Amino acid sequence: MLDAAEVLFAEHGFAGTSLRMITQRASVNLASVNYHFGSKEALLQEVFSRRLDPLVQQCCQRLLQQQAAGPVPVASAMAIFLETAQQQVWSRGRDGGRFVRLLSRAFIEPHPALQGVLPKHFAPLVMAYKTVLREALPLLDEATLMWRLHLAFGTLFHALAGNDALQMVARCETVDADDQRMVMQQILPFLSGGMQAGTG
């Protein structure tokens, strides 16, 4: 049922997906959804929880472990998120890519049910990164730090989704957004440079 909901939410959005569509795809009856989840909103929460909670917990744990040894370099902090997301997303093949598309939709779809999902899951991760990067980049003021975090996470999720933006707008054959090795190789210096710009 969760797999069916994830597919349909990713394809049609929350508003465009009915419980009937989910039950038909999952080959279950409507009573099963109501019994296990209670509502479409609760089902959406569970779809996100099963993917995001392990990702956030593992990232925060790794950041804490690194902090115990001293300030965490910016590149290392960015690598922790990307490596953990790679394990949780790319290693799952098509399922992982589907979830990232759902996550991308949640960022832009103006539906209260979707907008309420993200803070619940991501707040601990954002606070952990804010703490780590505040130590690594003491010269940045609060507003600049948060802007750079905002842009860094947007870049990371875009990369994980495998969006071939350059191919779509310029028919560029050089960049393959599905090449995980090259994404890792290119994105870390890009993010590190952006986060540290103007700090010496």
In short, what is this structure?
With 200 residues, the protein is an all-alpha fold.
Question: How would you sum up this structure, described in words?
Answer:
The chain has 200 residues and is mostly helical. It has one domain. It contains eleven helices and no strands. It has helices at residues 2-12, 19-26, 30-36, 40-67, 74-88, 94-108, 112-115, 117-136, 142-160, 165-170, 180-196. The protein is elongated, with a radius of gyration of 18 Å. 24% of the residues are buried.
What structural class results from the helix and strand content? Answer: mainly alpha
Unreliable parts: none
Number of helices: 11
Q: Give the domain tally.
A: 1
Which radius of gyration do the C-alpha atoms yield?
18 Å
Number of strands: 0
Q: Using the alpha-carbon principal axes, give the shape.
A: elongated
Mean pLDDT: 84
List SSEs in N-to-C order.
HHHHHHHHHHH
Estimated share of beta-strand residues: under 5%
Question: End-to-end span in angstroms?
Answer: 52 Å
Largest sheet properties: none
Helix content: over 70%
Index terms:
200 residues
Write the layout of secondary structure elements.
Layout: H1 2-12, H2 19-26, H3 30-36, H4 40-67, H5 74-88, H6 94-108, H7 112-115, H8 117-136, H9 142-160, H10 165-170, H11 180-196
Helix pairs in contact: 1-2, 1-4, 1-6, 4-5, 4-8, 5-11, 8-9, 9-11
